[in-house]
Design a protein that fits this description.
By secondary structure, the protein is α+β, with helices and mostly antiparallel strands. It has one domain. It is built from 7 helices and 12 strands.
């Protein structure tokens, strides 16, 4: 497998999609209409840094995950009981979610700044980071087909333009129609696909 072609995933609430499209993409640290992160989670990501002392906080990066079975996604689909999640996350049904899909290459080509690969929760104490294309690809190779990929993050500094999104996954046809209406109203053309397994509660 060409690691540059590896898919990456960013999950949000449907009600946040219009704001993302209207802004032209995702902005790091921005609080969306439906905020899934608890104050504790935001504090941890603001205090953790990428790289050496004095480096940029994790909160300055837009997070993506290597699989639709990522640990954070599974937590969200199970009911978001963990401290990292907000009351809004616990109130959301899995069918309310949309999955924005890109690739490592698309993020590297279109996003502002270099991508960084974290081998676990980016706010975790023992997480290691790989920045720059060569180191990031080596990290992706080490993570490929391992359980560590479930917690890993691909981080993009500052923002990700919406044109990097190649597919939007939804749980059912009514959600597909709602997403298409949002895209049409903004004059944006992006493939929308119904894929229920991504939104089913894990076993």
């Amino acid at each position: 497998m060409n690691l540059l072609d590896q898919r990456v995933f960013h999950v949000t609430h449907l009600r946040n999609l219009a704001g993302i499209v209207g802004a032209g993409g995702m902005v790091a640290g921005e609080v969306p209409e439906v905020d899934f992160s608890s104050p504790l989670a935001r504090e941890l990501r603001s205090s953790a840094t990428v790289g050496e002392a004095g480096a940029v906080p994790v909160s300055a990066y837009v997070p993506w995950y290597l699989t639709p079975d990522a640990d954070v996604w599974n937590e969200l689909r199970r009911g978001a009981a963990e401290p990292r999640w907000s009351a809004a996350a616990r109130a959301a049904a899995s069918v309310d979610l949309v999955a924005l899909v890109s690739t490592v290459k698309a993020l590297g080509d279109l996003a502002d700044g270099d991508i960084v690969v974290a081998d676990g929760d980016a706010a975790g104490t023992f997480t290691r980071f790989a920045s720059g294309s060569d180191q990031a690809l080596r990290m992706l190779a080490r993570l490929h087909n391992t359980d560590h990929a479930l917690a890993a993050e691909v981080l993009v500094k500052d923002s990700v333009p919406f044109e990097a999104v190649q597919l939007i996954g939804v749980a059912n046809e009514p959600q597909r129609d709602r997403v298409r209406a949002i895209l049409d109203s903004a004059g944006v053309r992006t493939k929308v696909a119904v894929y229920p397994p991504w939104f089913a509660a894990p076993d």
